[in-house]
Structures are given as C-alpha cells and as structure tokens.
Design brief:
By secondary structure, this protein is α/β, with parallel strands linked by helices. The protein has two domains: 170 residues, P-loop containing nucleotide triphosphate hydrolases (Rossmann fold, 3-Layer(aba) Sandwich), CATH 3.40.50; 61 residues, no CATH class. It has six helices and ten strands, in the order βββαβββαααβαβββα. The strands form two sheets. The protein has a six-stranded mixed beta sheet, sandwiched between helices. Strands 2-1-4-5 form a four-stranded antiparallel beta sheet, covered by helices on one side. Strand 4 and strand 5 form a beta hairpin. It is globular, with a radius of gyration of 18 Å. Bound molecules: adenosine-5'-triphosphate (ATP). The site of adenosine-5'-triphosphate has 13 residues, from helix 1.
Length: 242
C-alpha cells in the first residue's frame, strides 16, 4: 500500500532530513514510525500524505507515485498533524467537522457528528478556541476519519489525550484495522499502541535504522532512543494496554 525506495528529502535550502529510506507498509497494516525528536517522523508522514515530494527516490501510496502526477498521493490519504492548530479551519466544532461536506448530505453529517461524539465532542456549537489541546486533537481525528480514507496517517495521536480518550483512540485504531484501513502512526512513545501495531519503522537522524515486526524491532528500540513498553519482555508478546 505504501512503498518507499531510496527516499530522501530536504526542506528548501536545508540539509537532508531523510536519506535513502526504503520500506513497505502492507495494505490494512498498522505501522508505527518511531524515533527520537527530530529524526524525521513528521516529515515522513507529510510525504506519505502528499504534502511534500521526495527530493530523491520514490514514494508510492495506493499505487500513486511521488514525485508524480500532481496531487495523486493525496487522494485517499488523511493526515492528522501533530499540532491541531495547524489543521483546524472552522470556527466551531461543527463547522470544522462538516467543512467540505455537501450541504444537504444529512447522513454524512450525522455520521461525522456521531464520530465526534464518540471522541467526547458532543458540543457542536463550541467555538474551537474554547477547546483544550486534547479536544482540538480529537476534532482533527474526527475530521480526518469522516471521509473514510483508505490510508490514515497520524502524527502523535495519543499526545495530550486523557485515559478514556486514549482508550477510545485505541478502539478507533482497532476498528479501522478491522475495516481494512492502512494506518501509520508516528510517535516517540510506543506504549499506548505497541500491542496494536504489526510493523515498525525506526528512524535515527533521517535514516531507517530498523524496520520489521515487533519481535525483531523491540529488543533494539532503546539503542535508538525509544523506550519499549514497560510491561514488555523479550521473547514475550506485547501485553494489552488497558
Ligand atoms: N518546515 C521545516 N523547515 C525546515 N526544517 C524542518 C521543517 N520541519 C522540520 N524540519 C527539520 O527536519 C528535521 C526532522 O523534523 P521532524 O519534525 O520531521 O522530526 P520528528 O521526528 O517528527 O520530531 P519530533 O519527535 O520532535 O516531532 C529536524 O531537523 C527539523 O528541524
């Protein structure tokens, strides 16, 4: 579903941020992208969502290559940014949630509102500036899921979420997997979703240090600045987070 071949990227005028990264994410998989601050996680996710194009190498998402025909990668991929304030456009919860929906599509509007309510956002008239950081993050997640994207790319989705919301987030991820959606989650903390992911990409200073299934990756995590889940022990399955 997602394939990178020798992917490199540099912001204009800057040094390489990603260098010769190659990997595959299987359709319907849930892949964790982890690594220390500044290793390139958010940049890689932005490339997957078509916000940028590789400066060298290729990235293919849903069969659409990047660099490639304009905007192809963007179709069918939803990205939830790390900073909700860079994503929210509407003035109220409802306005942001329904932005871009056909005005008379009551069914989709109802579904979007139900999704927001699942995440604890039932005050649709609330101005967005009155929401807490966690609530703004939930609004972005609801808006991203609203159109049923084939690929969902989430940057630090658990950051700032309280315990019930983290459980709800986990339930959403599990439901997405059940529905066959491909998911990529960037995080510096694997704890809240370690038992849900089936593959990992570990970045270190812009390079792919390690990739593969949990049993191959977790024993090496600490070496790359990432703490394994507290209840995990080598040779054992990752215990369910609850
Ligand atoms: N818009 C930008 N312009 C120039 N450089 C940038 C930009 N965004 C990120 N960078 C640089 O790219 C590198 C990777 O940043 P990125 O945000 O992708 O890392 P990250 O792994 O997501 O970090 P964190 O865990 O802190 O969120 C960093 O050196 C950062 O300074």
């Amino acid at each position: 579903m997602i394939r990178a071949r020798d992917l490199s990227f540099a912001y204009p005028g800057g040094p390489p941020v990603l260098e010769a990264v190659s990997f595959e994410v299987a359709a319907g998989g849930l892949c964790g992208v982890v690594g220390a601050n500044g290793c390139g996680k958010s940049t890689l996710l932005a490339l997957m969502a078509g916000l940028f194009e590789p400066t060298a190498g290729t990235l293919t998402v849903r069969g659409e290559p990047s660099p490639g025909r304009g905007g192809g990668v963007r179709d069918g991929v939803a990205l939830v940014l790390q900073d909700p304030d860079q994503q929210i456009i509407g003035a109220t919860v409802e306005e942001d949630l329904l932005l871009g929906l056909p005005p008379r599509d009551a069914r989709r509007a109802d579904e979007a509102c139900a999704l927001a309510a699942r995440l604890g956002l039932s005050e649709l008239a609330a101005p967005v500036q009155t929401l807490s950081l966690g609530q703004r993050r939930k609004l972005c997640i609801a808006t991203a899921l609203r159109d049923g994207p084939e690929v969902l790319v989430l940057d630090e989705p658990f950051a700032g979420l309280d315990y019930p919301s983290a459980l709800e987030m986990r339930a959403l991820l599990a439901a997405n997997r059940q529905a066959g959606r491909t998911q990529v989650i960037a995080s510096h903390d694997v704890e809240p979703f370690a038992d849900l992911a089936d593959a990992w990409l570990v970045l270190a200073r812009g390079r792919l240090a390690l990739g593969g299934p949990t049993e191959a990756v977790f024993p090496e995590l600490r070496r790359h600045g990432v703490r394994p889940p507290s209840a995990w022990r080598p040779g054992l399955e990752v215990p369910r987070w609850e």
